[in-house]
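Contributing new records

If you add data, match the layout below exactly. Sequence lines come first and carry their own label; structure lines follow with theirs. Keep one chain per record. Anything else will be rejected by the validation script.
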Amino acid sequence: MKSLLTLSDLSVDEVYGILDQAELFRSGMNYPCNGKIVANLFFEPSTRTHYSFESAELHLGFGILNFSPEASSMKKGETFYDTVKTFESMGVSALVIRHVENEYYKQISNVKVPILNAGDGTGNHPTQSLLDLLTIRQEFGKFEGLNIAIVGDVKHSRVAHTNFEIFKRLGMNTYYACPETYRDDTIAASPITLDEAVENMDVVMLLRVQHERHQIAQNMTEAEYNTLYGMNAKRLEKMKKDAIIMHPGPYNRGAELTDEIVECDRSRIFKQINNGVYVRMAVLKRAVE
């Protein structure tokens, strides 16, 4: 059984192995999993992660059970633990779980089928980091020595927390730019201004302002936030040659980025989404082998 809860559980060689497998799927490799069933248990809303997992499952030939808390026995008082155990008892081959609580998987440590963490609170998002890595490697062919800045709400971002750890292990030089209220001094990165980032970074990764968790930074308007911490046409012109823009999505147009940035030549936002399918195919294969 090979769960994927955090990338810190994996060696560097294991990370490279997943990326290599994702590239094989991207090149057309087939790996049918007929007869196996995966349950997608999303206790928090999701578009990209949920449906790219489902797309990956369909490509691999899995049967799929999609769980909705709003249409389940949880409305009758069933616990998270008992819900997960119910799906395990149905004979599924793997569980894909997103939950609002950090380290939710510790509550279900005795579950005997692989668990693929699709995001836990503000803690970890391993498959997002893997697809980010795949996108970066496709662009530059390496990780060692690259300069990357993550911009925005690093304090509440599971993407940032997972990425900083693995980027550092892979030899990337990591930086962050954010409003004071979004700082997190526990991360392994150095502070930088956004204007310094756009002029010197190979990768500028923007993070979503999480309206569902708190108001926009320091009560700024979206336009004010963009002026200080967002990408726009003015900053785009200052980026170094071959530098790219990334965003895990969903994004707030006008805040983290203006309309012209979303699909500009530097943007890899939709490439990230595409790579997410292949990465999730790879971790599903790993889970059920």
